[in-house]
Amino acid sequence: MIRVGVIGVGTVGRAVVQILEENRSIISARAGDEIVVKSGVVRDLSKVTDLSIELSQDPYNIVNDPEIDIVIELMGGIEFPFEIVKKALQNGKAVVTANKALLAYHRYELQEIAGEIPFEFEASVAGGIPIINALRDGLSANHILSIMGIMNGTCNYMLTKMMKEGVAFDAVLAEAQALGYAEADPTFDIGGFDAAHKLLILASIAYGIDAKPEEILIEGIKNVTQTDIAFAKEFGYTIKLLGIAARDGDEVELRVHAALVKEAAMISKIDGVMNGISVVGDRVGETLYYGPGAGGNATASAVVANIIDIVRSGKRSPMLGFNHPLEEGLRLKNPDNIRSKYYLRLRIADKAGILAKITELFANHSISVEAMIQRPFAQECAHLLISTHEALERDIRALMGELESLDAVLETPCMIRIV
Amino acid sequence: MIRVGVIGVGTVGRAVVQILEENRSIISARAGDEIVVKSGVVRDLSKVTDLSIELSQDPYNIVNDPEIDIVIELMGGIEFPFEIVKKALQNGKAVVTANKALLAYHRYELQEIAGEIPFEFEASVAGGIPIINALRDGLSANHILSIMGIMNGTCNYMLTKMMKEGVAFDAVLAEAQALGYAEADPTFDIGGFDAAHKLLILASIAYGIDAKPEEILIEGIKNVTQTDIAFAKEFGYTIKLLGIAARDGDEVELRVHAALVKEAAMISKIDGVMNGISVVGDRVGETLYYGPGAGGNATASAVVANIIDIVRSGKRSPMLGFNHPLEEGLRLKNPDNIRSKYYLRLRIADKAGILAKITELFANHSISVEAMIQRPFAQECAHLLISTHEALERDIRALMGELESLDAVLETPCMIRIV
Q1: N or C terminus: fewer CB in 10 A for chain B?
Q2: Active-site residue among A38, A198, A222, A262?
């Protein structure tokens, strides 16, 4: 059994505890061992009364606890968490953190101190998207030519609103604050600093570049106006806050700024609070990773993936991820029982009564029509195009058989499912 | 030193040999050991005369060679490669394959035989996209609710052409064949079987479902016509060939078919030969993985990533992926030297000569104007919106300083980079 201590039981920390508890069976199947949260640390004990773990206010209770195997650091800040995780590593404990500011300043010292002890940080960049996993392992055969990403959901939410709804910067900022997407002091997000911390982490993995935030170009989005958006639309661009790392000979340029991006680029299609990171490798070409960049559960998903990875380290996971069925009783569904919406195309003779006959067959099979278009096709012949509400595969097949047997249906009906 | 044997030196096998050779220094930094291709197997020896590896026509030369540590299977087919990789595993050799048909039929037997011996297959699904990595490791904290993917580039190329250019099915198929995107006998692709093999592999990792292709719903795209496309456009859909795995209580439904997909969904934005797979986890929500699903280099990128992973197995990779700078001499670029295209917004007094003065300053800094729009803004005042060709950050900043000092420029100029 592996014992975990969570320093910082806020939104993310609470979600970590809940995932480890609620998804326990698949997690132990994948990790090859049971993982339990032994204790947590929280500033205000009165805020955590519903979790069945030991609680205290002192991080040292966790990093000095000989029973704890893995320390989860979710405090925020830079220098204090640095002291805490150093101590944890010195005590031989593995560390998982979501703290991007800590890594933006201290990642190389931490790599040095960690040595052979696992130190993982998937949640520090782009929340639930396994981008560090992809960059460090999935693309390891490649020289990375560039990384270009939407790494801050607050800015992307604001720019999307400004682009799509014509809202002015100040109004959309107020709205983002009301929705909890932006902090009361939004400088860290809209000034580009949050994205810069993430970019520095990715640049280390891709290039081994040890830069500090102060050394790179960082600009935010507060100068963007509707005048700029009108210009962008006229020339086929969207406006996004991008973090960019690009190889240029022996140099690597790192920059965070608002940018006009061609509408056709995949990265320009990432809207709202979502994050997306495009990585170009010299062999693979462009790959892109998309998902939620923040939120308790999404961030905790990445934290727990790191915990599982640490628990099984040294052991290889079985080829397909686990040896036994992941869950008792899980089985393949009979294709007849699949439910879907359907689109049907019929070629029909254009004569009286045929529509009534066809709609009666739909009703007989309890299949409800959502939309129907009849279009003349050739002389005395028409296309009948129908979309349905959800129905069973079995029923739609029976219906199609009966439709085909009608004299007025001139060829085998064609069906495409609607997803 | 780790010795690799490549069975099947075709497009992908050749790219594997080349990547291991040409990207040798980063690969050994990431793997922690040197990796060399010792030998290859090819049906027609006269087709491979330019690679400096031992060549033969007999796969058993590789699987029985005591010096070979890792066998790369890129033959294609099902039963013969099954015999070959079984023998390799029995001889204690790790195996990497890109063979989806082999896995669609024999993955559970292979997992059984492999036991503790590494057997990897990232390239078998979606070419260069590290989707197996993401699903097995990155999302391991989640119950997978659904997987929905564009897993066949041939079909996606054809459907994209049909949607965007109004080309009929037969014409676009002929074109895809001429371009080498579709085989002379295209049934395997356009009938949905290729996508089905990939879906079965993903379903095993997500759910532990041991289904065969014969047990699931598989339909292709050959019934799709311009009539259907017109209907789809009218109701805000695109048409895609999807592989879908979805959890429904204790059942998992697996299906491959053409589908009408809402234009707003990220998956509907994946065009041409590209692949994209959306995965919804119970905690992380939706994540999506996009990239090239085929091609020698992209597929080889995944094969080599697996080789690297096997070489360092047991050892943990250092926190940031490698211990020393990945490449000698790689350094951060001075932000002044970054090159970009720029968009500038100036508020100017609307009087004679000002435009001449401004364009002269651009010329003085060798910054070339791409497009310029002047719009009246208020009385005797206008917005001047300018996009430039590529220029140096240093020059644009100098230019902006001079622009700001002009009397006729009424506020600090605003600049957004164009990517």
Answers
A1: N
A2: A198
